[in-house]
Amino acid sequence: MRIDYVHIKSGFKNLTDFKIDLDQGERETVLLGLNATGKSNFLEALVIIFRDLDLETHSGLEFTIRYECRSHDIEVDFEKKSGYTFIVDRAKLKSKSEFFKLKETYLPKHVFVYYSGINNRMSDLFNPHLRKYYERITSDDSQYSEFNEIPRIFLVDNIHGSMALVAFYLFQEREKETLKFLKDELGILDFGSALFALKKPRWAKESIEEDRFWGSKGLVRRFLDDLWLFSLAPINNREGYFPNYKHSETQDRWYLYIKDKQTFMDLKEFKYSDKTNFFNALNSLDISDLIHELRINVVKEVKSGEIPNKELSEGEKQLLTVLGMLKFTRDDEALILLDEPDTHLNPMWKWKFLDYIDDVVKRPESTQIIFCSHDPLVIGNMEKSQVQIFKRDGEGKTQTHQPRRSPKGLGVAGILTSEMFNLPTTLDSETQDLINERNILLFKESEGKMNEQDMVRLKELYEILNSQGFSQIFKDPLYTEFVKAYEKDQKESKPVTISTAESKESKALEIVRKMKKDEK
C-alpha cells in the first residue's frame, strides 16, 4: 500500500482544493506544520475515503486519490454530480461494481488509526464500521470465524494496549522480540491477573432482569460465558458512581476475576487458538459497551508483585498501545495513520520511536505509515523525501511542500531553526537578547565608537555568557569579523525579519561575499 497523491476538491474543514504529492517510494511520511494547518484533517479525510470505499457508499467528500495496492495502480475520483470513477492499471472501469467486487484486492487490508487527542473527532468517523461489525458479532448465527480478522478500519484506544499485552504473553512463542522490548524498554516481565469490571450497557432492556449479562447475544455472549467459567468467584453488585461531578448514578456490574496467567492460558486453549482471535474476543466487550474497566496487572522489575496497568505512565501506555496494535495490523498492504503518537514519550523514546517501529513491529515493505509530529527528535533520521510541511499561504489556503534539506544530520537545533519548524533561535529569549547586545557592542568597538560605559557592559556580557558556555565562539577571529559585518549590514540595510535557517544562510553568504570584497 502506497499513497502517491491526494486532492481534496470540496471543502473539508480547513482543506479546500488541497493537494499533496507524497513520495511513493517511502515507507514513512511525517506531516509537519503549525497547529490548525490541516494535518489531522488530512488524516481524517483519508479515513473517510477508505471507510466509504469499504462500505461502498459516499459521504459527499469530493476527492481524487492515487495509490498502489497489491501491485495495482489505482486512481479513485468522486464528484457529487458524476459519482465514483475508478481507474485500475490505467484502464477505466465500466462501473463501480467492478471495483467493489474486487475490493479485497484494491483496498488496503487495514487502515489503522491512532489519535492522541481526547475529543471525538476521529471516533465519530468509525461509527458506521463499528455498527456493522457489532451487528455481525452479536447476531444469533455468528460464527467464531468472525473473530479471525481485525476490522479493516480500526481506531486504537489505550484499552487496546492492555488487550494486546495479554495476547502477546499468551502467544509468547511467536512474540520473542515483543517480549524482549517490553522487558528492556518498559520493564514489564509478565502479566499476572486480570479483573473485568462489566457494566450494564445502555442498550440493555429493563425487562431482561433474569439474564446475568443483560441480554447479550452472539459471539459476545459466548465469550462472556467463557469468562464466567474461568473466573474466580464472580461478584454481582449494584453500586453508585459519578459519571461527572454534577450527579451520581446506580449501575449494575459484574466483576470477573482471572486469577493468574495459567487460567488465561486455559481459557485460550479452550476456544481461542490465535492471538488475533483472542484479541477480537476481548475487544468485543468494549465494542458492546460492556466494559467499565479492564484492569490488567503486570509484573515489573522495579516493584515486587503485580501492579495494575492504569499505574503505568502515560508514555508507557502510549508506546504499548501504538506498538502493540501495530503488531496486529502489520499485514501486507496496510495503511497506518498516527496523529502525534509521541505526545507522552520521553526524549529517549522519541529518539528511538521509528527504530522501535522497524525493530519491534517488523512491518512488511508494503505497509505505509503517515504520521503527524511536533518533535524534532522523532524525525531526526528522516530524509526530506519523507517530510511534508503544511503551511497556509497569504489567502489562508493550506499547501504542502518538501523541505529544502533533510532533517537527517541537522540535529535538533538545526531542525527547529529550519523551515520545518521556523524557530528564530533555540535559545531562550533572555540569553538571545544578551548575545544580540554583545554583537552590537562588538560592532561599535570595530568602528571605534565604544565609550567607557560600553566597555564595562561588554566585559559584563562576556562574563555572563562565559558562564553559560558561549565564550568559545569568539576564539575564532573570523567569526568575530563575521559578527561585526553582520551588525554593520543590519545597521546599513533596511531591517528584515530573518525567520528560517535558509534565509539566514542566504544572508550569511551575502555578508561573507561583502567581507571578501572589502578585503580585496
Can you give a write-up of this model?
- With about 525 residues, this protein is an alpha/beta fold.
- About 40% of the residues lie in helices and about 25% in strands.
- The chain has 16 helices and 18 strands.
- Strands 9-8-15-16-3-17-18 form a seven-stranded mixed beta sheet, sandwiched between helices. The chain has a six-stranded antiparallel beta sheet with strand order 2-1-4-5-6-7, with no helix packed on it.
- Strand 4 (about 65-70) and strand 5 form a beta hairpin.
- Helix 5 (about 160-170) runs antiparallel to helix 9 and helix 7 (about 220-230) packs across helix 9 (about 275-285).
- The longest helix has 19 residues, at about 500-520.
- The chain is globular and about 95 Å long.
- The protein starts with a strand and ends with a helix.
